[in-house]
Amino acid sequence: MTQDTEAKAKVGAIIVPVTLFEQNCTIIWCEATKKAVVIDPGGDVDRILAAIRHTGVTVEKIWLTHGHIDHVGGAAELRDALKVPIEGPHQADGFMLDHVVESGARFGMVGVRNFKTDRFLAEGDQVSVGEFVFDVLHCPGHSPGSVVFFSKELRFAHVGDVLFNGSVGRTDLPGGSHATLIKSIKEKLLPLGDDVSFVCGHGAGSSIGQERMTNPFITGEL
Ligand SMILES: [Zn+2]
Ligand SMILES: [Zn+2]
User: Fold this and answer.
1) pTM, whole model, 2 decimals?
2) Which stretches of 94-145 are DSSP H helices?
3) DSSP conformation class of 195
4) Contact call for residues 160 and 142 (beta carbons, < 8 A)
5) In the list 63, 127, 150, 170, which could disulfide-bond 157, CB 3.0-4.6 Å?
6) Ligand 2 center to 3 CA (angstroms)
């Protein structure tokens, strides 16, 4: 068994699609300790709690990739249900956490709440779950405070809405910038290595190598 496969055998993950935006709420856990993190609980908290019970893991933290409603709508409710801290996003998305109720109302999302994070994240910070450490990369463009979680050991990243399988995040929302987004992807994500696989905020995941070679926003076709 290679070192790489050994590392992957030590981690578990499931995706729970939530909200009308089919956002990929992701539960990742360390198999050795069964300690878990919930990334981007956008809503449908009952379904997230059912998935947690089903896997039998102990959630230690909630991580947020950015402040958009489909990623944070269920954060306050899940935090109260599990009594765990929220880490992320970057402070530049802080203003969105104060307007969750307003944003939710636009899409008919009821029961969402404004909240404060327990820890804003910045470039170079590290977050941990069980035995795994993830580096925090600040990748503005889709939103000003988007962050990516990267595990060097697992060769795995959660990229939020920065990069998608065959596409990139939209940049027409407050604080968005397409030029900044492409710069984030080229300067922060591509250097992680072609072998790094990722989960993104919507749709199927991919790998950095696959996107570097075929994603039209990166190859320059778009
Ligand atoms: Zn978003
Ligand atoms: Zn999203």
Assistant:
1) 0.96
2) 94-97, 100-106
3) T
4) yes
5) 150
6) 33
